[in-house]
Amino acid sequence: xxxxxxxKVFFIxxxxxxxxxxxxxxxxxxxxxxxxxxxxxxxxxINKAKNRSEIKDKIRIELLKGLEKDNLLSEEDKILLYKxxxxxxxxxxxxxxKIK
Length: 100
Hints:
The protein has a domain at 72-100. Helices cover 88% and strands 0% of the residues. It has helices spanning 2-44, 49-68, 75-99. The longest helix is centred in the N-terminal third of the chain and has 43 residues, at 2-44.
């Protein structure tokens, strides 16, 4: 009789801990990841016309904001892009000499 009672208490505790664990995982998932997953789903559903138009409008707004600024790029970004341009130019020149 005592073993039966101990076994019943054990299973009640086990079920309680399991439900608590599931609840905590669900709460953390909703708190931390749900919003990010929603944004990822929105990006992956670009094939829908509504989502494409929303993304297109957002890009236009950001471009207009960028045009209102005096400098589009920071000095560091300008230097980086210029170095990249020089590297590309030298690679194209090497291809050009191979073609002729």
